[in-house]
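Section 4.2 – Deliverable D4.2 (structural model, holo form)

The reporting period included a commitment to supply a predicted holo structure for the target in complex with nicotinamide-adenine-dinucleotide. Inputs used:
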Amino acid sequence: MTHRIAVVTGAAGGLGTAMCKALVNQGRKVVGTHLPGTEFTAEAEQWQTDLREQGIDVAIYPLDVTDFAGCQAFVNTVEQDLGPIDILVNNAGITNDAPLKKMQPEQWNQVINVNLNSMFNMCRQVFEGMCERGFGRIVNVSSLNGEKGQFGQSNYAATKAGIYGFTKSIALEGARKGVTANSVSPGYIDTPMVRKVPEKVLTSIVDGIPVGRLGQPEDIARAVAYLTADDAGFVTGTNMSVNGGQYM
Ligand code: NAD
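Output (structure tokens):
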């Protein structure tokens, strides 16, 4: 694998950390971003320590993906420090649930802003350069609940479904330029986001997963590693569902 530069947003824990690890193992120079003012999770700290002990340098930059100008400045800094960005994984995302009859405009806007506007904010900065250089891999992290909808998540499901249309459109724009764009839709994965779900609810969720368990972050990281590989150039505009068979 070429020593390409890969950016993973929202890398401080959960799926992002596992994605960074998989990309490092694939020989990428990885830049993980963390939201300024938030703590790294224990897994993310451990991940950084492990990699550094192995002599693998991981660059961590602060970034708020809702800030268009901040994304522009971030990309400029990374490109000056390390070189052009060849791989972008838009992973940062949040939930802020409520049934529609209780959902406040702030809740709606916050989730749209973090989960969907961030796709534009980040892709807009790197896409042109990727096309000019004739190589690029973009993976946008969606969700099972974007595919099927979910009670109490009209905001979240709308953002995750919106990712499909966005991804397919830029896949068309990049297709002749060596730039692919795909989405990955995780099912329920054992991460801090899912650990917030009440135990009773989680038990009933696991009962509904045909493979009989939550996914592991590595299950998603492997999909990202595949879609960002140099020789995955014929895979574009698609969605990879990684959900233990929960939705087919
Ligand atoms: P997580 O909460 O552990 O990680 C999300 C990351 O996004 C964190 O590092 C957080 O700091 C970052 N973030 C939040 N707001 C940000 C902002 N404004 N700017 C920059 N970074 C910001 O969650 P996770 O479970 O690892 O989820 C990662 C992605 O996978 C999300 O897009 C989520 O919607 C999606 N997903 C997760 C699951 C799951 O089961 N965990 C299932 C389906 C989809």
